[in-house]
Amino acid sequence: MREALTYARVMMVDRPIDPVLGVTSFVSDWINRHGFYPTFQFNDILGCPGFRLVMNLLKREILLRSLDVPAKASLATLTQRLSGTGVVMRSPSLAVNLRASLDTLPLLHHQPRDKGRYLTSFIGCLESEDGTWNLGFYRAYVAGPRKLVIFMDARTDGHRIVNDGLKRASAVPITLFNGGPLACYLAAAAKLPVDLDSFEAAARLGGHALDLDRTNYPPAPTESEIVIRGVVTSRRETEAPFGEFKGYYCAPTLSPVIEVEQIKVRDEPSCLGLFCGKESGLTLMSLQNEMLLFAHLTSLGFVVDSITYPLTAKGEFLSLIRTPQPSVDLLDAAMAFDQRCKMFVVSEAGENLLGELAIFPLHSRLAPHIRHGRREGERVGIVCDRSVAYDWVEY
Questions:
Q1: 127-277-212 Cα angle (round to 5)
Q2: Which tens digit of pLDDT belongs to each residue from 293-343?
Q3: pTM score, whole prediction
Q4: Do residue 273 and residue 320 come from a single domain?
Q5: Domain termination residue (choose one: 263, 279, 295)
Q6: Residue range of the domain that includes 298
Q7: Per the structure, how many domains does the chain have?
Q8: How many helices (H) and strands (E) does the chain have?
Q9: Residues 6 or more apart in contact with residue 1 via CB below 8 angstroms
Q10: Fewer CB near the terminus (10 Å): N or C of the chain?
Q11: What CA–CA distance (Å, rounded) separates 59 from 287?
């Protein structure tokens, strides 16, 4: 993370700003006025002396540069790396300064009707049943100075690991870390095979060895800025409403309580923030979707030039697949692999997708869209068939 800040274009905000709605209202006002979202560094967070808060660092160009991946061949490069091997090592953590309370951290209250302050940009680390480490993003409500209420979607590996662990013991150890290598952020966002260690995947994606700290808890990268350790208990409390990435508030849930046992930070710590539904979070979602679908389709022998999950469709619900050989078979494979995406378009188009859709014959597929176990409309797939030959005009 610190290396990425050296080559990111960062706008410094030196005036005092409140973590309760102050940061997110500042960011929202900026976007509304200027039409874009730069990387911000807030240097004076009220109630959190010594902390810097970085917002919107996880832009695509910064992520790819951090991973040393060329933009034009990013999906092919990441796919090749993910199929290789990664080196994970152990070394002392740089987060050595104890903090007594979550109240000392620059944790944000994001939207006016959120229940309170939330962790949104911390990566959760849990030990899987087979002894591998599983990383994931989970929102966690700050319910007290040393208490969190964590929401884990029932579709996530983390939900399964915690539920199974609580059948065997009264609590499940968890580590929540912020900052460190950006490869961990991509690995945590990706729905990786259950038998692949997430830190191993991060080392592969990053293209070099990954250092983890020495601890009796689930580990964190040694370069992490903030490390929170504790246990997930069987006790449940209410969290939410919370302004989700789709732009609406989710309903309250009854979710597991985390008892925080240790909080450590680096010298002169920076906290990486994430404003749900804005560029950074959507970029992580988009890039991991593109990477995993590209890897799947090419492993089946399909030729794929590029895959795009546009941020305007929340990085998840529209997939544009560019290939020199559009086919219904490719479309079927894509729709079977990514069950969450609502619309797929397979074409040869480069810049003029809408023109190609207007001119050439289309083949389509429909499938039920299932959300939270209920049918909500249809999933749609379209293949643009360029086999028809036209007598094109010269001008």
A1: 30
A2: 999 999 999 999 999 999 999 999 999 999 999 999 999 999 999 999 999
A3: 0.93
A4: no
A5: 279
A6: 280-384
A7: 2
A8: 10, 22
A9: 54, 57, 179, 180, 181, 182, 223, 225, 270, 272
A10: C
A11: 10
